[in-house]
Specification:
Helix content: 55-70%
Number of strands: 3
Shape: rod-shaped
Strand order of the largest sheet: 1-3-2
Structural class: mainly alpha
Radius of gyration: 43 Å
Order of helices and strands: EHHEEHHHHHH
Number of domains: 2
Distance between the termini: 96 Å
Mean pLDDT: 78
Length: 201
């Protein structure tokens, strides 16, 4: 076999398999089913073991274009061929590469959504368990309790003037007695309100 018989740019079949990243069986089936056209393949020599050569770029593009883009069994093969073809003819596979990237992003988004959903469910389950065990208090319950306590404090303090006005009038000539009356009234109400804390201990 003389190298001048090999068309310029053609490579051995094994080299094409390496370059494209496809197995020898896959390439052999493509040739047998004319997915790679006969004009892209040549046997150099007359012997049974004479090597086959292939026009790698033309073979890859023809093969790629002969595959059914909509068939699910062709997706992996088209994707592998597209990675090889984009090195020398990116315009041929531009849309397919773009679509593959979009599908990959979409899958990542879907996977991330599932991960977050699982994490949220696990967190909710943990919170519910802690609430049942009594080691965690609901935010709503805390708010309601604080609101109720605030109302009690407000009502208690607003009731003081009405309750001690007469007593103040009776001792108005003594500043100390007035101060002590007001102080004792407030202290008494605060003492009552301290019972609120005991409810939540």
């Amino acid at each position: 076999m003389k190298s001048k018989k090999i068309p310029k740019g053609w490579v051995k079949l094994s080299e094409f398999e390496r370059m494209s990243g496809l197995s020898s069986r896959t390439v052999a089936l493509a040739i047998a089913h004319n997915k790679i056209p006969a004009e892209c393949v040549k046997k150099i020599g007359a012997g049974a073991t004479s090597p086959k050569y292939v026009d790698p770029q033309a073979a890859a593009v023809s093969w790629y274009q002969n595959l059914n883009a909509g068939h699910h069994l062709s997706r992996t093969l088209r994707s592998t061929l597209a990675k090889y073809i984009k090195k020398f003819a990116p315009d041929v596979v531009g849309e397919d590469i773009k679509k593959s990237k979009e599908e990959a992003r979409s899958k990542m988004s879907f996977d991330e959504s599932l991960r977050r959903e699982k994490a949220a469910k696990a967190e909710t389950a943990e919170i519910e368990l802690e609430e049942k065990k009594g080691s965690l208090i609901s935010k709503v319950n805390v708010y309601n309790s604080l609101f109720e306590a605030g109302q009690q404090i407000r009502d208690a303090l607003l009731s003081i003037p009405e309750r001690i006005t007469d007593e103040i009038i009776a001792v108005v000539e003594s500043r100390t007695k007035v101060r002590n009356l007001i102080h004792d009234a407030i202290a008494a109400e605060l003492e009552k309100l301290s019972e609120i804390n005991k409810k939540y201990e």
